[in-house]
């Protein structure tokens, strides 16, 4: 006899089956000697346990016992309400830390890029030419072919 | 695990920042070569001080300027101290001097002096070659070629 059938018999004895199922099991029990034996054994075990189970005595009254449990639940709930969340669990901290990282990266990039832009990443880009002699006109240009930047000072000698 | 994933970008950024500061602090002195050149269409004058210019440089000058012949008046190698130290004065002839100052690699300030008077101040990123030039009498020209070494 398999476990499923035994469980079915157990449910029958515990009156947990529907009326239809109970009728089927009852009819089956009437014709199956093995099932009857199992059923008897289960009934005996149930009766044995029901008659000999030791009662557990709570040292306090039932009300006091449950009130202790209630107080403990209330205390734990209150403690969890007042306990500050972990540092990294705070929403602003979760947001602030990566943002600080990004800000540092941007600052770093600006530091690296600024000197390049000041110096003119493109060769030949002039940034400042001051002429002290009024009559000296200056032309500046970059020749890629010659690979040189030229500042031509026209003094009008010719 | 979560703490690590959040803190890692910040730590990485700090490492990069310190690395950049380290690079900044290691700015080095810069080496240059300055050459005063005279350009003319006439054959080489009888002047022993004039020397031939490197043919490769002549070829590059001829791509831009009209003169056929280029002669070296003087060439000097010099070192420019890293910013913020003062610049280096280079005397190329009795009439021509330049003062080169580092303004943070590769930015450079070049002051051109003619007969001890400041003619021009140029602030320029010198990565290849800077030529300061001007016309002279008898349809000739002078060239100050500044090359980073």
Quick synopsis:
The complex is a heterodimer of chains A (158) and B (149). With 158 residues, chain A is mostly helical. Chain A contains 5 helices and 3 strands.
Describe the structure.
- The complex is a heterodimer of chains A (158) and B (149).
- Chain A is mainly α and 158 residues long.
- Chain A has 2 domains: 1-82; 116-154, no CATH class.
- In chain A, 59% of the residues lie in helices and 11% in strands.
- Chain A has helices spanning 3-13, 19-31, 33-52, 62-82, 91-119; strands at 128-131, 137-143, 148-154.
- A two-stranded antiparallel sheet of chain A has the order 2-3.
- In chain A, helix 1 packs across helix 3 (33-52).
- Chain A starts with a helix and ends with a strand.
- With 149 residues, chain B is of the alpha+beta class.
- Chain B contains 2 helices and 9 strands; from the N terminus they run αββαβββββββ.
- Chain B has helices spanning 2-25, 55-64; strands at residues 30-40, 51-52, 69-80, 88-91, 96-102, 107-114, 117-125, 130-136, 140-148.
- In chain B, strands 2-3-1-9-8 form a 5-stranded antiparallel beta sheet, with no helix packed on it. In chain B, strands 4-5-6-7 form a 4-stranded antiparallel beta sheet, with no helix packed on it.
- The longest helix of chain B has 24 residues, at 2-25.
- Chain B starts with a helix and ends with a strand.
- Mean pLDDT of chain B is 84; it is low at 20-25.
- The A-B interface holds A 88, 94, 97-98, 100-102, 104-105, 107-108, 111-112, 115, 118-120, 123, 125-133, 136, 138, 143, 145-158 and B 2-3, 6-7, 9-10, 12-14, 16-17, 20, 60-61, 63-64, 103-107, 112, 114, 117-137, 139, 145.
- Strand 3 of chain A pairs parallel with strand 8 of chain B, so a sheet runs across the interface.
Write a concise keyword list for the protein shown above.
heterodimer; A: 158 residues; 2 domains; two-stranded antiparallel ribbon; 3 strands; B: 149 residues; alpha+beta; five-stranded antiparallel beta sheet
């Amino acid at each position: 006899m398999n476990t499923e059938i035994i469980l079915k018999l157990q449910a029958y004895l515990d009156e947990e089956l529907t009326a239809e199922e109970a009728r089927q099991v009852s009819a089956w029990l009437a014709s199956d000697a093995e099932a009857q034996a199992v059923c008897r054994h289960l009934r005996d075990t149930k009766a044995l346990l029901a008659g000999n189970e030791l009662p557990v005595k709570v040292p306090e009254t039932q009300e006091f016992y449950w009130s202790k449990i209630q107080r403990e639940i209330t205390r734990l709930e209150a403690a969890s309400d007042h306990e500050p969340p972990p540092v990294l669990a705070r929403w602003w901290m979760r947001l602030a830390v990566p943002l600080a990282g990004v800000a540092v990266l941007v600052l770093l990039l600006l530091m690296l890029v600024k000197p390049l832009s000041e110096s003119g990443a493109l060769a030949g880009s002039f940034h400042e030419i001051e002429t002290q002699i009024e009559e000296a006109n200056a032309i500046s240009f970059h020749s890629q072919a010659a690979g040189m930047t030229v500042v031509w000072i026209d003094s009008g000698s010719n | 695990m979560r703490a690590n994933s959040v803190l890692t970008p910040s730590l990485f950024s700090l490492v990069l920042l310190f690395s950049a500061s380290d690079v900044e602090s290691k700015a080095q002195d810069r080496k240059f070569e300055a050459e005063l050149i005279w350009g003319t269409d006439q054959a080489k004058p009888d002047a022993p001080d004039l020397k031939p210019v490197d043919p490769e440089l002549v070829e590059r000058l001829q791509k831009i300027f009209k003169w056929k012949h280029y002669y070296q008046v003087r060439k000097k190698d010099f070192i420019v101290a890293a910013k913020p130290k003062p610049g280096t004065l280079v005397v190329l002839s009795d009439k021509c001097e330049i003062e080169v100052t580092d303004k943070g690699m590769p930015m450079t300030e070049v002051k051109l002096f003619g007969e001890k008077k400041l003619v021009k101040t140029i602030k320029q990123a010198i990565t290849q070659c800077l030529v300061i030039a001007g016309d002279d009498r008898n349809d000739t020209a002078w060239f100050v070629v500044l090359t980073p070494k």
